[in-house]
Amino acid sequence: MLEIAGVEGGYGSVQILNGVSMRVARGQMVALLGGNGTGKSTLLKTISGLIKPWKGSITFDGQRIDGLRPDLIVRRGLVQVTQGKEAYPGLTVEENLRLGAHVRRDRAGVRRTLERVFEYFPILGDRRNQFSATLSGGQLQMLCIGRGMMSEPKMMLLDEPSAALAPQVVLDIFRIIGRICREGTTLLLVEQNVRMALLLAEYGYVIRDGVVHIEGPAEKLIGDDNVRLSYLGGTVADRDGGKNLRH
Amino acid sequence: MQYFMDLVVVGFSIGMVYALVALGISFIYSGLDIVHFAHGEIYMLGAFIGVALFKHTGLSYPMLLIASMVLTGLLGVAIERLFYRRLTRAGGGYTFAGMGMIICGFGMSIVLQNVAYLIWGAKPLPFPVSFGMPLEIGELTLPRSYIWIVGAALILMAALHLFLKKTRLGLAARAVAHNKEIAYLMGINVPMMISVLFGIGCALAAAAGVLVGPINYVQVLMGIGILIKAFAAAVIGGFGNLPGAVLGGLLVGVTESLGAGYLSGSYKDIYAFILLIFVLMVRPSGILGVSIKSKA
Questions:
Q1: Which chain A residues contact residue B181 at CB under 8 A?
Q2: Could you read off the pLDDT of B125-180 as tens digits, one per residue?
Q3: E strand map for chain B
Q4: Are A20 and A7 in contact (CB under 8 A)?
Q5: CA angle A134, A104, B155 (to 5 degrees)
Q6: Contact between B124 and B132 (Cβ < 8 Å)
Q7: Which structural domain, as residue segments, surrounds residue A112?
Q8: A103–B181 C-beta distance less than 8 A
């Protein structure tokens, strides 16, 4: 579905991605893990077209999409779900959701998808005419996921859906994400919450210093010492002479 | 009382003209973060295009108005694409790009004045649309040109409101105004929407030019005075706030008219700024403005 090959890129003259390669198969949920400043967000922006890659190729659904304008990438069915704080505060819940369906012209279909989103997230239906500025953090995250669903994409890129949320809310959100994947949408889940992401996803990539550092099936990664040491909060220095502390 | 009402009617009509220009300036600012200093010249070009169409085609006045709005809007789109977009892009997107954009706006205003001078000359042109006899309502005598101004301006404002609140494209426009990157992720063609927004702002100014033409002469320097007053109006209402721009325009128009009528006509241009200073002393963010930058 999505294939990234040797992508290099960054902002201005600052190189952040140093040759990232990864792939996501159709219907799969893949986790993209890594700490702050490792290049996760840059990679996301590069996939969704907000920044152009310098080198390498990105193929989606059999066609090259690197260098394409972001709105054209959305039209092909690849949508980035932003973090909750990126909902438009001055627009109502329903307006935010309708924005997600901007690329669609079939009014009846949009209304059906809207009802489907309200079925996933009943709280959004209750608050459809409120400004999204009045929502809580968890509700904002739901709004952004719902907004991503509105165009009925083939694949969604989820940008840290658990960021800054209470544990109970995180569980709710992840349950929904699992359901979205089961119902046929391919997902790339970018997360800092490594344990949760690996419990849910089938395959994982750990990115560091702008390259894929470790990759493997999720159940393997969750038992992997390097992953545990780096991201699951172990103390590292004692294991391997501090090799993993380089950055 | 009769005299007072006359002054209010005149002020209200002129205020509608200020309001349309201020609305365009505020609209462009809220959508593109461009403070457009050549907007007075867009208004002037709109009026000239209206006169030219009047002379060379047999279009009725409403059609003239629409045709001039479309042509001037397209001209604005071309100007933005060719000149402003390079600057805003160089400044790192459509954030407040600093002095470069402001200087470019002033430069554009001089260029457009001279272009108009080369085409139409320095002599003020009449815009002799005939509206028929003034309307008499009781004691009040209303010249029909004023009714046209108020009516057309209200229709345009209502149309803009409906566009922004009720249509798919209007929703996209509000999204682009608020955050261009997220708008892109919604699948909105952001460069195209920026052109649309700028074009609408210019079309509003053109409408003001065509509406004011018949009660004034059309001339190359007509944009300078209105730019300053429209800015005052936009700031009085709250810069970037669309209802505020309309309110500010009407306040400026009525204040100016009453001042000229009761105090002194030779200081006509001062009253708008006295009002501006007063409003800024009491509410620095404008009447409808909020202290956080609010957007359409």
A1: 50
A2: 888 887 878 888 777 778 888 889 999 999 999 999 999 999 999 999 999 998 88
A3: 135-137, 140-142
A4: yes
A5: 70
A6: no
A7: 87-152
A8: no
